[in-house]
Amino acid sequence: MNLSRAERRRRSEQRILEAARLLFAERGFDRTTIRAVAGMAGVDPALVMQYFESKQELFNQAIQASPAPEGAAEPGELVERMLETLGAKLSGLPPASLAMMRSMLTNSDATASARASLGRQIDQIGTALPGADSRLRAALVSSIMLGVTIGHQLLELDPLREASREEIDRLIRPCLLALLQDTA
Amino acid sequence: MNLSRAERRRRSEQRILEAARLLFAERGFDRTTIRAVAGMAGVDPALVMQYFESKQELFNQAIQASPAPEGAAEPGELVERMLETLGAKLSGLPPASLAMMRSMLTNSDATASARASLGRQIDQIGTALPGADSRLRAALVSSIMLGVTIGHQLLELDPLREASREEIDRLIRPCLLALLQDTA
DNA sequence: GTCTATAAAGAGATAGAC
DNA sequence: GTCTATCTCTTTATAGAC
């Protein structure tokens, strides 16, 4: 004998979630259908509803990403870590993150999720910085990383796609340093 | 007597376009219906189709924005002009631009429009800069402005909404200067 | 020229058979 | 437990009346 019912169900759920992430990441919330998700996962559309209650609920579970790494640091080290994060984002976002980003401007649950996710990042960076405007600086840094990621991964701007990670690092580093270090 | 038929038609078209811009800007392409546009413009839904052929064509015309101001400059002045542009964006985007931005991650025509619009901006900044990587720098500057605009206007990140234009200027300026001036 | 009425298609969701 | 069949709703788009 092979798998318990619970185990089979768990596997089906995972396949559905994985298919949902890929399709939501590619097409966004509105243009992704339950039928397409079911087709890709190799299950019946009704089963998707049975497991996840609604399309919106499926989406909400699909965009739950693993939380960002923890730990504070002084500005110089912080910049290096941000560049590392950015490099990772530019070489390929996890489907869950891409799905959230893709729909964050048109679906209110995705907007809320993006706001919360960026909020956490801002808090983390903000508390590592000195000064009264630390949260504003942190928000600007986060927005900058967001913009570069969108330009590279979603809009696919030619100059960004043609550049190597090292080139981007070299040009962005002084930019982030200027924002994080200056105490003027 | 008052208005010629052509004049009446022109005015109806303008009202429809204006309503379309507002609704597309607010809800994005997929969640905006012809019916809602017609309702806001005070005309019959069938008339909208009669004038614009399809929803996508209405959208394409609605997001046509006035082109950006021309003229090159040296880096220092360029930064000031970019800050001015950014300040304008943060105090309120024109509906046409907002409509384009809102849907640029989920509608392929909007993606193409955004890519073209940013491409023009990148060319303009790029030709004003010296050096081999001028286009990459220009693309990064444009992406940064995009990210801050999205964070402020669409995601409504608290730290950005609470900051004054002057604070943002002061923090972003060295960041842009570092990106545009460094010739290392 | 403008609107009424409707066609045609596709979606999410559900009830019940197996 | 899973899937077949269908319901119901909403949409874009169109044909034809006024």
Commentary on this structure:
2 copies of one chain form a homodimer. With 184 residues, chain A is mainly alpha-helical. Chain A folds into 2 domains: 5-62, Homeodomain-like (Arc Repressor Mutant, subunit A); 75-181, Orthogonal Bundle (Tetracycline Repressor, domain 2), CATH 1.10.357. In chain A, 74% of the residues lie in helices and 0% in strands. The first copy, chain A, contains 10 helices and no strands. Chain A has helices at 5-27, 34-41, 45-52, 55-62, 75-91, 95-103, 108-128, 134-154, 158-162, 165-181. Chain A is elongated, with a radius of gyration of 19 Å. At the A-B interface, helix 6, helix 7, helix 8, helix 9 and helix 10 of A face helix 6, helix 7, helix 8, helix 9 and helix 10 of B. Chain A binds a DNA duplex (18 and 18 nucleotides) through helix 1 and helix 3.
> Nearest-angstrom radius of gyration of chain A?
19 Å
The CATH architecture of the largest domain in chain A is Orthogonal Bundle
Ranges of chain A with pLDDT <50 over ≥5 residues?
Answer: none
Q: Give the number of domains of chain A.
A: 2
Regarding quaternary structure, what we see is homodimer
Give the CATH level 1 class of the largest domain in chain A: Mainly Alpha
User: Would you give the CATH topology of the largest domain in chain A?
Assistant: Tetracycline Repressor, domain 2
Overall pLDDT level of chain A: 94
Count up the helices of chain A.
10
Structural class of chain A: mainly alpha
Could you tell me the number of beta strands of chain A? 0
Q: Which protein chains are joined by the largest interface, and how many residues does each one contribute?
A: A-B, 57 and 57 residues
